[in-house]
Design brief:
The chain is of the alpha+beta class. The protein has four helices and six strands; from the N terminus they run αββαβαβαββ. Strand 3 (60-65), helix 3 and strand 4 (90-96) form a beta-alpha-beta unit.
Length: 143
């Protein structure tokens, strides 16, 4: 409609039984629009709801290992890790050292290296193994 005095714009919106909505208040002169504001808000909420539906939430799952883990226990935890990665979740692998196991940090690192190699087709190491107190932590994310 071009540049219109505010009283004229209010009158036109009242005649059309719609709302006068300010679109860009910082512009000179301010830009306004005659529309059904409640319908506009409804459509906006609907778009936001649809966008939230399409979002993928990534969870961080944790699996704890010990340096002298038996082969069967290792495979059970390995299959759990595979399942987590296939679901699209990240996994935090924690190697926990208890008591005198602190003397065998190299053994724990070998277990984590083996795990990283075997899981390579499904996931990649996002954060390399790092020592944190009595634990070595590594984060693996799906490919």
């Amino acid at each position: 409609m071009g540049v219109v005095p505010i009283q004229e714009a209010l009158r036109q919106s009242k005649d059309a039984e719609l709302d006068l909505v300010e679109v860009a208040g910082t512009a000179v002169p301010p830009v306004c629009r005659i529309m059904d504001y409640s319908r506009f808000k409804y459509d906006q909420e609907k778009k936001e709801k649809e966008a939230r539906k399409k979002q993928k939430v990534i969870h961080l799952k944790e699996i704890k290992f010990h340096p002298f883990i038996e082969e069967h226990d290792y495979m059970v935890k390995f299959h759990s890790l595979e399942r987590f990665l296939k679901q699209g979740d990240k996994a935090k692998i924690t190697m926990v050292f208890r008591g005198r196991e602190m003397n065998y940090i190299a053994t724990g690192k070998k277990v984590l290296e083996r795990l990283a190699l075997e899981i390579a087709p499904l996931g990649e190491v996002e954060k390399a193994p790092y020592m944190e107190g009595r634990m070595i932590t590594m984060i693996i994310m799906p490919k």
